[in-house]
Amino acid sequence: MIEVSGVGKQYGDITALNRLDWAIGEGEWWGIIGPNGSGKSTLMRLLSGVEQLSEGAITIRGVNIADYSRKQLSRMMAVLQQEGIAPVHYPVREVLEMGRYPYLDWLGRDSKDDVDTLIEGIMDKLELHDLAERPLDELSGGQRQRVALGQVMAQEPQILLLDEPTTFLDIHYQQQFMELVAKWRKEAGITVIAVLHDLNLAALYCDKLLVLRDGRAVGSGTPAEMLTAERIGYVYEVDPVVVAHPSNGVPQILLTRQV
Ligand code: ADP
Ligand code: MG
């Protein structure tokens, strides 16, 4: 569904991405992993069309990303950042409705008749009813991230891009967030691409991983193929122990104390 061919991105003298080839199938959940500065966020900005490539091409369903209009792209693809949404003083229900902006015509009318049903359904799924009238800036980080997810759900994208969505969350909200995305994907068949810092979460939830180092792909494949002690050791400059998760066998990374 998404083809990345020979993609490079330059910022002055800095090569943030170098000759990247990558193919993403419809409905797959990819994780992008790699150390700080390896080009993960740059790749997300190129995929979402907010920045232009220096080299190569990205196509979605056979069409070059540069040939889609802003509105077409935002109907197809939603992006959720680390901090989700700015903590504005708007009630949660209105924040969810803002997700509909790509579908509004110049009079502010939605192309869908039953937006209220859609928003109610999202509030059911994310258990947001109790928060519906509360202003966003009075919620906790975990609650806000759930609202941010609701807003992108209202956008009804086919592709979801997540850039470190769980970084500021405690383990309860980390798991809740990943489970909600997993459920959404199962129900709606969306394609998910997520930059994840937590390798263990990535192994639990992603079908496949793209591993970046210094703007280059070091490999791509299943978590079992990618999360070997050798590869993780090389990419992150650590000396990890990889164990099989006791309940499902996926690789989990442990660090060893050095001193
Ligand atoms: P990651 O998300 O993996 O931490 P980034 O994609 O943010 O990495 O950055 C990759 C490299 O590109 C880094 O060296 C970073 O300093 C550089 N970079 C990213 N964005 C810009 C920018 N707007 N201007 C200049 N350099 C940038
Ligand atoms: Mg980043």
UniProtKB/TrEMBL annotation:
Q: Which PROSITE patterns match?
A: ABC_TRANSPORTER_1, ABC_TRANSPORTER_2
At the highest ranks, the source species' classification is:
Bacteria, Bacillati, Bacillota, Bacilli, Bacillales
Protein name, as recorded: ATP-binding cassette domain-containing protein
Q: Which UniProt keywords apply?
A: ATP-binding, Nucleotide-binding, Translocase, Transport
Give any GO molecular function from the UniProt entry: ATP binding
Q: Where is the ABC transporter domain?
A: 2-239
Organism whose genome encodes this protein? Paenibacillus dendrobii
| Pfam family, any one | ABC_tran
